[in-house]
Design goal:
homodimer, 135 residues, mainly alpha, Multidrug-efflux Transporter Regulator, Chain: A, Domain 2, two-stranded antiparallel ribbon, 6 helices, 2 strands, 62% helix, 3% strand, DNA-binding
Chain lengths: 135, 135
DNA sequence: CCTTGAAGCTCTAGTGGCTAGAGATTGTAG
DNA sequence: CTACAATCTCTAGCCACTAGAGCTTCAAGG
């Protein structure tokens, strides 16, 4: 079984230019080519690309995915390192959530305190100007 | 009062190249220059740059900040549009939080179910390969 | 076998919000 | 007047793609 880049795209939901990009950054191996230099892929690449897509959907960056792929090929190895990467990523997400929740609270607070009057007396603008609520 | 770009940077906490960048994208007006073509800023720019910095810290993108700056200059105007921009931004943040919370849950779930054995039987790797938990 | 048109190819440039560096010039304190 | 920090412009790099130009190849129908 040997499929074109378009067919690979259809089967994985990854766009054609993105597949070529992944090849360029080394997430996908250099594929076989036809005589006319068109790429031809096999089942392994479908699985690998699906793996990449799911990892991207879960927010992993390319460097992490490269490592996860390498690890996933060493079937006998302990999965401690995999867990460590994922754990690090979860902590990363936690920090981002915290930050966003704090931002949201500050924005909502300035909205709540807005008297719906003119710009001159607008709480929101004031907060932006001073960086905090002056009471 | 007329200060250099370095002094402006010190007073606002915005780095020198970033100030030049903001000028380039039209967040800061073209400043006065010395005979030797070095930039000189006044109090207005300090205030404006502080405004920009706070807005960036609150996660607004440059396009939004441009609009907020324009609005903030029209002191008589109703602040409805300002509120609308901020409200949109809050909703944006809400969506990002939701997504991150969902991601976090999925990652944590796969970690919890990991038997700490080999890669071969690793839950985390399986989830990435299939895109969901096969029971 | 030949034509046609979709799909493929490579290469470059753009996105956002900066950051880093090269290499030249200017400001200012001693 | 000298020394040197600061500033100048310009280009390129970051991440993970995306878009487009201009060309070639593949596959199906006649």
């Amino acid at each position: 079984m040997s499929i074109s880049i378009g067919e690979l795209a259809r089967r994985t939901g990854v766009k054609v230019p993105t597949i070529r990009y992944y090849e360029g950054v080394g997430l996908l191996p250099t594929p076989a080519r036809t005589e006319g230099r068109q790429r031809r892929f096999g089942v392994d690449e479908v699985a690998r690309l699906n793996f990449i897509r799911h990892a991207r959907e879960l927010g992993f960056e390319v460097a992490d995915i490269r490592e996860l792929l390498t690890l996933s090929e060493q079937r006998e190895r302990s999965c401690a390192e995999v867990d460590a990467i994922v754990h690090r990523h979860v902590e990363n997400i936690d920090r981002r959530i915290e930050k966003l929740v704090a931002l949201r609270a500050e924005l909502q607070r300035s909205l709540d305190r807005c008297a719906r009057g003119t710009i001159e007396e607008c709480r929101v603008i004031k907060v932006l100007g001073y960086g905090y609520d002056r009471v």
